[in-house]
Structures are given as structure tokens and as C-alpha cells.
Amino acid sequence: MQGPEVKPAAEQGAEQPAGAANEPSALGNASTTDVQGELQAALDEARAKASEHYDLYLRARADIENTRRRAQDDISKAHKFAIESFAEDLVPVMDSLEKALDACPTANESLREGIEITLRQLRSALEKNRLTEINPQGERFDPHRHQAISLVTAEGVPPNHVVAVLQKGWMIADRVLRPALVTVAQA
Hints:
Blueprint: H1 9-15, H2 18-80, H3 84-103, H4 109-128, E1 131-134, E2 146-152, E3 162-167, E4 169-172, E5 175-178, E6 180-185
Parallel strand pairs: 2-6
Antiparallel strand pairs: 1-4, 3-6, 4-5
């Protein structure tokens, strides 16, 4: 048993009539234009989607960069102001030691010396942690760093300048921990 005889492609084309041979190429030209149009439409659509996805990628990347930068700022602030609550508790101790020195100028010499040493050590520890005093005596009044308790008339002091400091203020880095309590000269 032998199967049907297979003829080469050249022989198969020879059996078709002459008009039939031209017909596929005519269809090929028409469908080539259609195919090119469809391919161009698909390419345009793919380009639009690629452009949209690239835009989304850029936005996501920018968002990640902003989040990273914000996290670094938060960490930096946390390091910078980590001792803020502890410093708020130590500042009144500093005030008390200074008042103790002012209140007893004739006290026992060794007691006075001990208070001065303690005060120097505390001041040194606060300065190491970027705590600085605000002592605005004679300076122009700054509502961001000073808290005015009263306005007074004062000879020889320009208007809106600090006449007296009732309580020193404190800053940690560039943030006011406690404003200085002051009296201010009237205009």
C-alpha cells in the first residue's frame, strides 16, 4: 500500500490556471496594506502604553526618592533632638544651681566651690549636646526666642530691646527649648 503521490510545489503551481496565479498576489497587496495598518496601530498602541508605563515608573522612582529623603531627614532630626526631653528636665537644675550661687555669696567656701564645679560640669555636658543659653540682655526683642513678661520705660535702652532677663532661655541645635523670659523697653 502506497499513499497518494506527493508532487513538488513547482508542479502543483503548474496545474493552476493562469488567472488563479495572479489572484493571491492581488489579495496579498490588499492584505499587506491592511496588515501594515494594523501593525502600525498596534505599534502606536504599544508606544502609548510604553510611554504611560515609563511615566508611572518615573513617578514611582521619584516617590521612592522622596520617601528615602524624608526618612533621612527624620533620622537626622531624631539624632539632633534625641535629648530634648532629658534637657528640659536638666535646665531647671541649671537654674537652681545658678540661683544657689547668687543667693549665698558669703557661704562656706568649699560649698560654693562644689556648686561652681557642679555647675561647670553640667554646663559642659549641655554644650556637648548642643544646648546653648539664650541670655538676651540688651539685645533686640525676638519673639521666636524671647517671651516678654512686661513692657517698661527704661532710660538709655532703645525701644523693643531687652531691659532685664528674668529667666534664661535655652536652645537645642537650632530649636528653642525654652524661651527667655524678659522685660522689654517701650517705644
